[in-house]
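A quick word before the example. In earlier lectures we treated sequence and structure as two separate objects. From today on, think of them as two lines of the same record. Here is Universal stress protein UspA written that way.
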Amino acid sequence: MFRNILVPTDGSELSASTVARAIDFAKEAGAKLTFFYAQPDFPTPIYGEGALFDPTTPEQFSRAAAAEAEKILGLAKAAADAAGVSSIGDTVISEVPFEAIIASAERNRCDLIFMASHGRRGLSGLLLGSETQKVLTHSKIPVLVYR
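And the structure line, produced from the sequence above:
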């Protein structure tokens, strides 16, 4: 049924659990996995009274973000390899993760997005929003939400 499943991950404990469940799901479905990490962009400096000084250059920030992406995607790929599930990693720099997730699913020709939910409800869910909710409302590709 599913051949290529996108699994967004951010390296958190919840994402690690989702990666493990996605690997089990892909193994049963005979699908391959595409792990995805949205790298943050260099923050725009704020100037003025009371502004904090950050000595990090854009190049240093970019290298650190790329190293973090490589680490997170490497751990996910190693777990998939250990389970005998074929996988690749994908990462881009994006300040709008839900758009980057959908774009990655389209670019990699995924037929399912398998992602976590923090389970926020009510006012906190409405005010904080969630990348999962945004992917659900904007994606044309089916989304399986693991909680």
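Notice the following. The chain has one domain: 4-40+55-84+94-146. We will return to this example when we discuss secondary structure assignment.
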